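Hello Y.,

Per our agreement to keep a running log of every chain we model this quarter, I'm adding this entry. I've kept the format consistent with earlier entries: sequence first, then predicted structure.
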Amino acid sequence: MKRKDFLGQSSLATTGILIAPSVLNSNGLNALLNTSKKHLSYAISTWNVPQANKIAGEALDNGANALDAAVKGVAYEEANILKTTVIKGGTPDREGVVTLDACVMNHKGDCGSVLAVQNITHVASLAKKVMEKTPHVILAGEGARTFAISQGYIPENLLSQEGEKAWRKWLENGNYRPEINIENHNTIGMLCYDQKGLLSGVYTTSGLAYKMKGRVGNSPIIGSGLYIDNNIGGAVATGLGEEIIKTVGSFLIVELIRQGKTPQETCEEAIGRIIEKKVVNRIFRWLI
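Predicted structure for the entry above:
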């Protein structure tokens, strides 16, 4: 199935951005998708982030390429201290430290990723720098932070007073039981389709609240958090990262579309594989 056919038949899915122009007027969807009035270009994102989509959409209207528009769009949410699930003001790990993950991928398949970064707000643009200015795909931890500083990024404290207060409250019991549910999200993923017909994507997050130090989910993992094939389409996957990694969720979505499955069939199979693995794991643990 070609990308244009895919866009014309898609529906919302919990594991990826799959959305149709024909449903743009449905309640709530304008927050997810910004379409250009001048050209066939799109800015599509996870969750309710209308301003981020507006910024990306305006950039596309003004001729920006898909990756630059996506990075610009998510930057708004990265700096939005009122969002406790993305970057600045994000919920810390169990040590009280905010650590960040991000990745980017363009229409050529070039990609960059940063993992477990501290004190740098705009990690999506940092992942783009990794793609463009290093021979690597992934930089992690202190290495990523050092590279950021060398590129002119200014370190800052990302833990808000409210975030620290909530963390100290959490320490009183220390319960950590991440579950798969629609409220359990901590990311912004964005796909953009520009005026030249090129597709790119970005993913950025502060990860699960009160995670173990060093934990990394699916968000910065190419193929799990994000995957782009300009001839087929693109997907970002959000939810409990450990489960998405096990199915290589975003790559799976794109590959099933390549095989000719409809978007509905694709989403059902992707979700089904997650459910199947969860059931098998529970049975296995019970037998042991």
